[in-house]
Amino acid sequence: MKDDGPEAIGIIAGGGEVPRRLIETLTRQGRRFFVIALEGHADPALVASTPHVTLRMGAVGAALEALRGAGVRDLVLAGSVRRPSLPELRPDWTATKLIAKMGPKMFAGGDDALLRAVVKVLEGEGFRVVRADSVLQGLLATPGVLGRHAPDSAAQADIDRAIAILRALGPLDVGQGAVVQQGICLGVEAVEGTDALLARVGPLRRDGLGGVLVKLRKPGQDERVDLPTIGVSTIEKAAASGLRGIAIDAGGAWLVDRPAVIEAADRLGLFVIGLEKTA
């Protein structure tokens, strides 16, 4: 039965801190919301006491029915999701029809192509997909240095090099992050995500000044979903891998829990900077 109260905000939740912050903020504000917790991705403890349903990614029909039943119009897609293969997806009848309608392009290419297809499907069903930072004030990264530490000329040169690499790869829809040390690219983020990238580059670090992680949105990316994101865990993992700092896309990246990120960066001796112009 459809809820006749004020429209609820829908959250399609994967892993990570952004869904947690959304739920905490909406609860504190007393706003109605409903969560589609993606099975195997969203933390079950996070949604245990909230209005929600846990569904596999391929259960599109059940998800649409649940969202409509909860009176949802605006939807936020938030959190990390490991991209499934078609057999892992186990599409229901609704998903199967949508996949047939969208054709092979739905699974061809990188994450941007798939997410654009998902957004198109949701909008075609009458929902409006909105950015997480329209609900979470302070989530969007701002320009300039955050905290006590700033990049020196060597670190800035590594930032510039990483920007050039990401701008070259962006049209190929590969990833949002790169690690550069002393002008050498130690790694580029692909399907594994930022945490795995940082773990991978740790053993590759060279003697001398540490490297930098740069995270940028891709050219033409739908900025309502999957913006580059960092949080305290990113700072800690970057420090453990011997990096000197992190540069992110001001106005095009999410910074989860800004005060805690600044405290962690100051404590561990890393810089965090929002890049105002990266083109």
From TrEMBL:
<dbReference type="Pfam" id="PF17930">
    <property type="entry name" value="LpxI_N"/>
</dbReference>
<dbReference type="InterPro" id="IPR043167">
    <property type="entry name" value="LpxI_C_sf"/>
</dbReference>
<dbReference type="InterPro" id="IPR053174">
    <property type="entry name" value="LpxI"/>
</dbReference>
<protein>
    <submittedName>
        <fullName>UDP-2,3-diacylglucosamine pyrophosphatase</fullName>
    </submittedName>
</protein>
<dbReference type="InterPro" id="IPR041255">
    <property type="entry name" value="LpxI_N"/>
</dbReference>
<feature type="domain" description="LpxI N-terminal">
    <location>
        <begin position="9"/>
        <end position="139"/>
    </location>
</feature>
<dbReference type="Pfam" id="PF06230">
    <property type="entry name" value="LpxI_C"/>
</dbReference>
<feature type="domain" description="LpxI C-terminal">
    <location>
        <begin position="143"/>
        <end position="273"/>
    </location>
</feature>
<dbReference type="InterPro" id="IPR010415">
    <property type="entry name" value="LpxI_C"/>
</dbReference>
